[in-house]
Amino acid sequence: MDQIKIGKFIAECRKEQNLTQMQLAERLNITDRAISKWENGRSMPDSSIMLELCDVLKISVTDLLNGEKVNTGNYNQRLEQSLIDMVKQKEEADRMLLFLELLVGVICVAVMLATVAFASFVDMEEWLRITLILIGLAPILIISPFMIKIEQTAGYYECKECGYKYVPTYSSVFMAMHTGRTRYMKCPKCGKKSWQKKIVRK
């Protein structure tokens, strides 16, 4: 999907309905800043208000996702392409999130090891040594819940027993034993526990 094209299309349709950004925002119960971001191609309308937006602008969801009014003759083909593009964008976003999770994790571990090594080998008072070790541990403790959330929502886990691909709950990811991005969890479909790999494509 081309966000710039979609943004321009939203602006055109809004003007066709004689609505200002503020008026459209009021109709959708959001801020005019969100409308501005859509029209400048910096973000996309949330799926929860997409239908309402299309209703106000007198267009279809397919029109919106394509950034133009779609001819009914190739409606199914364009819809299918839009869905494929959305899946590809999700896969790319998931890969980026998983890369950032890995990068942040490496940085936090490096800070922790450097701080602990410094505190262990440099002569200093005991309270200062303990303080330094705690400072080294702090980034990992603070960032861990966010990293687990990324691990849960980015991509899918694949059951080794039945091949089912799913997004687990936060608690099941948090509690699961793991080696890297492979976790020992119970499959919601077959009910069996196995070492399940993280995958990006469903």
Describe the structure.
β4 and β5 form a beta hairpin. With 202 residues, the chain is of the alpha+beta class. The chain folds into three domains: 3-70, Orthogonal Bundle (434 Repressor (Amino-terminal Domain)); 86-152; 155-202, no CATH class. It contains eight helices and five strands, in the order αααααααββαβββ. The chain is flat and about 75 Å long. Helix content is 63%, strand content 10%. Strands 2-1-5-4-3 form a five-stranded antiparallel sheet. The longest helix is centred in the middle third of the chain and has 47 residues, at 75-121.
What would the keywords be for this entry?
five-stranded antiparallel β-sheet, 434 Repressor (Amino-terminal Domain), 3 domains, alpha+beta, 202 residues
Set down the secondary structure blueprint.
Layout: H1 3-16, H2 21-28, H3 32-39, H4 47-57, H5 61-66, H6 75-121, H7 126-153, E1 156-158, E2 165-166, H8 170-175, E3 177-179, E4 182-186, E5 193-199
According to DSSP, the number of beta strands is 5
Alpha-beta content class:
alpha+beta
Shape: flat
Give me the Rg, rounded.
24 Å
- Report the sheet with the most strands, covering strand number, pairing sense and barrel closure: 5 strands, antiparallel
Helical proportion, percent range? 55-70%
Output the helix-strand order: HHHHHHHEEHEEE
* Euclidean distance between termini CA atoms: 19 Å
| CATH architecture term of the largest domain | Orthogonal Bundle
Strand order within the widest sheet? 2-1-5-4-3
